[in-house]
Structures are given as structure tokens and as C-alpha cells.
Amino acid sequence: MTKERSKPLKTNTFLSLRDYGILINTLVLIFGAGVLLYFLQHQFQEVQAIKFNSFWGSMLFYFTLTVLVSKVLFFLFLLYHYFKYKPIASVTDEELPTLTIIVPAYNEGFFVFDTLKSIAQSNYPKDKLQLIAIDDGSGDDTWDWMKKSKAELGDFLSIYQQPENKGKRHALYRGINLAKGEVIVTIDSDSLIYDDTLRNLASPFVVDKSCGAVAGNVKIQNLKKAIIPKMLNVSFAFSFGFIRAAQGQMKTVLCTPGALSAYRKEAVMHCLEDWMNQTFLGVQTDIGEDRAMTNMILKQGYNTLFQSNAHVCTNIPETYGILRKMFTRWERSNVRENIMMSKFAFSDFRKENKLKPRILLINQWMSIISAYPALIVMVLSLVFYPLLFLSSTIISVALFSIIPALYYGIKYSKMNSLWIFTYNLFYFFTLFWITPYAILTANRRGWLTREQNEAIPTDDSVMNYEL
């Protein structure tokens, strides 16, 4: 890996003729849906009459109105905190805490070598760093690449091999018990960090003594390899740059991502055994370790922050099959951890700022509670008013895509902001079933068969970037 690979990626990603074709077709589809909706006004009036002339229709109307109004108010709530957000500037070398960086790896091959090299190139004081890489029983050549990294980096890197694949939580647990630093940093083994990432990530622990965890700013590395990463890019940018920034201003980031996060060791050790032995409905939990750790640190009364200047580039799925598995795992974790958070969020869990975490949690629950009513309405509408449903849905999705599109267009690239329209339509028509299915199967274990060298990020909040 060269030095340049750990530098920020260009946001104006090259668009091929195929990309232009997809974006143009998306806009044509939205325009066509608008024209069709205009000619179906008589059906729309029939639906309106049903809503107001029947009990269930009225209930559905007022439920939908309540959800819509709450989402608008919640967006304004986020917008207010977003404009107030500022990342904490880096402190001096003398003030920086000692770090233990843990890189768990499973079937990552040469990616882990690049990751470890990018960490070694950080401008963090080397005498304050402890780097640990753990091979979680990989079936490929991951261990060989770790040994190559060890040969190149020397005593700066310590490598360990699990006797068998036990899951990411077990690998992290082993690394945490070996940690000597005041702050523990976790980085996914297919991710590259920037030169100043570590110092920006660690500085909040010095400035805010109540800081228990810090979330990094995740960007997509494999943008040019497939359409799915390009589509997801705007969603990632909005999820981290806008939503997590707002949560960070509230000092209540709900999930510190597995790709890059930092934790105060004292807080981690206080909940480590509970985290390692966590169960849900009597079943041992082996997914959602990042959200679970965040919850347990929040429960102790600590602040959880976000550093927009602590960047990491990671790979994401490039195929539909792996994407749906990732989203299913994320949403199962989301259901579980919302339940866990509900057990303490309405108690006196910290001295101040208790209302904002509760508002964030209520918004999370509204998305889950409305999943089945929305599914029922969708099925009925598709059966009785198929053209009206399809056209109105496309227009509605387009309208809700405007906010992240504007955000990305203003901050990065106007042309690439159009991908959010394609992605949201793709998600609605091919992945709408994820949340209802995840609710029914929330107690299931497993990463849903991780594929060799197939990236599956471990953050469960990107999918639900929408307000």
C-alpha cells in the first residue's frame, strides 16, 4: 500500500456512461410517475373517501399524519443541532492519551495488511500506541498477511490467532483484555484511516472528561467497483455527516461504528463481561457489538460523541445478496438494542441531558412500530390500486430523497447527489421487507454467512438514515 491510499478520497467520483444511463432513467421514472399520478387523480379521490368514511380508514389516516408530523418535527430538531455541531480540535501530543488499537480480522486477505499499514502511518506519537491484530480463525491467507505486517512493522504490532472462528465479539474481547491504553480504538480490517484520524478521534477524551465513546466518520472506499457502493455513498454521507453530527452535538451518538470507534477503557472494563455474555430472549448475542457497547456506555452516564474530522474509508457490499444480509443483521441489532436502551433511557441514568436521548430513542421506535402497518397498507394498495400505489410511492420516495440530495450536493457533488434517488427507490422496492422480517427474527444469531473478502460493515444505523 502506498501513502496516497490513506489520504481522503475524491468526492467527485468519475461517472461512466452506464452511470449516466442509470441516473437519467431514475429521473425519467420519477417524471413518468408524476405524470401518471396526475391522470389518476380520480382514484386518489376514491382512496381519500375510503379514509374518511370508514373507521379503519380514519385510523390509518391519522396514524400516517401523526408519523409524518413527528418526522418533520424530528428533522427540524436534528437540523438545529446539526448547525450547532463542531468537531473537537486535536490536542497537543503531550495531552493525547495512550491508545490501544484493536483490528479483528476474518477472511480479509491482503486487506488487513493495508489496514495495519495505514494505522502505522498515523501522525500519532508512536510511544503512545499499542496495535493489536487478531485473526478470528480465518480460512484464507489472512494470518499470512498479518505475519507480513508483523515483519514490516516489528514490535509496533502484536498479532494473535484464534484457534477457530468465534465471531468478532470474541476477537475484540481478547484484544480488550490485552489493552494497556487509556483509550481503546476498534478498526475494521478492511478499512483505511487518514494520517490525522487517531489524534482527532482521541482528543475528545481529553477535552470532555465525561466522554465515554467517540464515533468516527465513515466513508466508502470501493466507490468505483460497483453500482451499490455508488448508490449508498450519499446515504453514508448523510448518516454520518448530518445525523451523527446532530447526535454528537446532543452528546448521544446511538451507535459508534465498528469501522472506527474509540472507547474510554475504564468504561469498557466496567461493562466488558456483560457485553461479552449478552443475551437476547435467552440466546447468546453475537451481532451488533458496536451498538451494544454504545448502549452500555451510555447507561453508565457517559457522553457519546462524533468526530467528523476522524475519517475512515471502508468497503461495503457490492452485490444484492450480501447487502440484504448486512441490512438484516443491522436491523435485528437495531430492534434488540432499542429494547435494551428503553430499559435505562427513561431512568436517571446521567446527571444532565436526559431528554435528548429519549427523543432519539422514541424516533427509533416509531420507525419500528410503523413497519407492519406500512407493510399492510402497501399490500392492500398494490392489490386494489396498483398504478396509483406505484406512482404515488415513487413520487413520495423522490420527495423524501431531496433532503439528503441537497446535503450531499451542497457539501460534495451535485451530480453524485442524484444517486440517493436511485438508492431509495432501489431500497423501497427490493429491501422493504427487511424491517418486518428482522422484527420477527430478532433473536436469531449469526452474521448470515460472511463471505471471504466480502465487506460487511458492522454499523447498524446507516440503513435507517431516513428521518
What would your notes on this structure say?
It is a single chain. The protein has 16 helices and ten strands. It has a single domain (1-467), classed as Spore Coat Polysaccharide Biosynthesis Protein SpsA, Chain A, CATH 3.90.550.10. Mean pLDDT is 90; it is low at 1-8 and 451-456. The chain has 467 residues and is an alpha/beta fold. Strand 8 (279-280) and strand 9 (283-284) form a beta hairpin. The longest helix is centred in the first third of the chain and has 30 residues, at 55-84. Helix 2 (41-53) crosses helix 3 (55-84), helix 9 (265-276) crosses helix 10 (289-299) and helix 14 runs antiparallel to helix 15. The chain is globular and about 75 Å long. Strands 3-2-1-4-7-6-10-5 form an eight-stranded mixed β-sheet, with helices on both faces.
Overview features:
disordered N terminus; eight-stranded mixed β-sheet; 467 residues; alpha/beta; 12% strand; Spore Coat Polysaccharide Biosynthesis Protein SpsA, Chain A; two-stranded antiparallel ribbon; globular; 16 helices
CATH architecture: Alpha-Beta Complex
CATH topology name: Spore Coat Polysaccharide Biosynthesis Protein SpsA, Chain A
Identify low-pLDDT runs.
Answer: 1-8, 451-456
| Bulk shape | globular
For the largest beta sheet, what order do the strands appear in spatially?
Answer: 3-2-1-4-7-6-10-5
